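Quick illustration, no need to memorize.
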Amino acid sequence: MADVNLRSDEFEQSITRRYRARLWSRFIKAIREFDLIKPNDKICVCISGGKDSMVLAKLFQQLKKHSEFEFDCEFVVMNPGYNQANLDLIKFNLDKLKIPAKIYETNIFEVAYSQTRSPCFLCAKMRRGALYDIAKKLGCNKIALGHHFDDVIETTLMNMLNVGSFQTMMPKLHSTNFEGMELIRPLYFIRERDIIAWKKYHDLQFLQCACRLTEESKVDESASQRLQTKKLIKSLLSYNKQVEMNIYRATENVNIEALLGYKDKNGKHYFLDDYEEKDITK
């Protein structure tokens, strides 16, 4: 038992010591800059079984020990229908990392992949809905997800290239369907490579992809939009080392006066709507 406790302490100490600048400090920066956590919050920390959500859970465990104010956490694994090997791996890592998570069973994979049209869209929608429902029943007012900096810039670029829309993954959002619930992303400033470095340092193995559709149909993951976007960003780095930060900065340096159009809660606006009233020059 003593060896197990020492091992658990090693995981936690590496976050605030060896990886302090790359993980802990950036976690705290996001919380402070975006005002993600407030006194007396009850946060549902969602764990998918992958490296990102596991690091998120460990960061929250450390924050509970060092926070300047009181808040509470519920660590949740929503099982959409993982095969037994994947579920066993999740349980093994929860035990190894001493994360007190409760597993909630659902049949989401079964329902979503019985549909012939848009099973991935339906699966994502059902998983998000299930998480909100679990969080609400636990008395939580916030849901924490493990999206990191790379997810943010990839999503921004994917929207531009594949949807024709300039929008990003926000650090926090109010739920439109669950009143009083808010979604937060505390890993917003953390790089994926640093999560991978922490994982490798401790020789940990997490879920890669537990998608039922990928398992059954042998879908070529290399064809995914996100992976192709990762490759595109990597190729652009050879031309400009600041590409990643510039994609991020673009989301907070939007000049509405230099856009053809934009949307807000009042609808869509086109630059010609009030063109004659403005004195726009080059």
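Residues 31 and 183 are 13 Å apart (CA to CA).
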